[in-house]
From TrEMBL:
Key words, A-Z: DNA-binding
PROSITE patterns listed in its UniProt record: SPOVT_ABRB
Protein name (Swiss-Prot/TrEMBL): AbrB family transcriptional regulator
Molecular function GO terms recorded: DNA-binding transcription repressor activity; transcription cis-regulatory region binding
PANTHER family for the chain: SLL0359 PROTEIN
Segments forming domain SpoVT-AbrB: 79-124
InterPro entries assigned: AbrB-like, SpoVT-AbrB_dom
Pfam families reported for this sequence: AbrB-like (PF14250)
GO cellular component: protein-DNA complex
Length: 129
């Protein structure tokens, strides 16, 4: 009987990349392929979904422990990096909009460069001029 060599569980960018490569698999299969499983004494393979999901949360930089950041409020700090999501969207998070003092409904013109995006805020016309 040949034993499958257990791989070290992936973390960080390597985990995110592997999960993206395995997009057609179930979450249990993704966890197994990323090394999040154990083998019991009886040779039964058990997937550890909690460790896998926690590693994904950590890899995405989401803070769930309630740790306070420097301004005394919860939430993520801006890393100034974003990834294209699986649906092709770019999401600019609340950390950036708060820092820029933006509000719901603020409008921007988008101009595209070769590998960059420029946003220019459109000035609102007051309806009661």
């Amino acid at each position: 009987m040949t034993k499958k060599k257990k791989i070290e569980p992936l973390i960080g960018e390597a985990l995110l990349k592997k999960v993206k490569e395995l997009e057609t698999l179930s979450k249990e299969e993704k966890a197994r392929e990323c090394g999040y499983y154990t083998v019991t004494k009886n040779g039964v393979e058990r997937v550890n979904m909690m460790k896998f999901l926690n590693a994904l949360i950590d890899a995405e930089g989401i803070e769930l422990d309630g740790k306070q950041n420097t301004n005394g409020r919860g939430g993520r700090s801006a890393s100034y990096r974003i990834n294209v999501q699986s649906n092709g969207n770019l999401l600019i998070g609340a950390a950036y909009t708060k820092q820029m003092e933006l509000h719901p409904g603020d409008e921007f013109e988008i101009s595209l460069g070769r590998k960059h995006i420029h946003l220019r805020q459109v000035e609102r016309q007051d309806e009661a001029s």
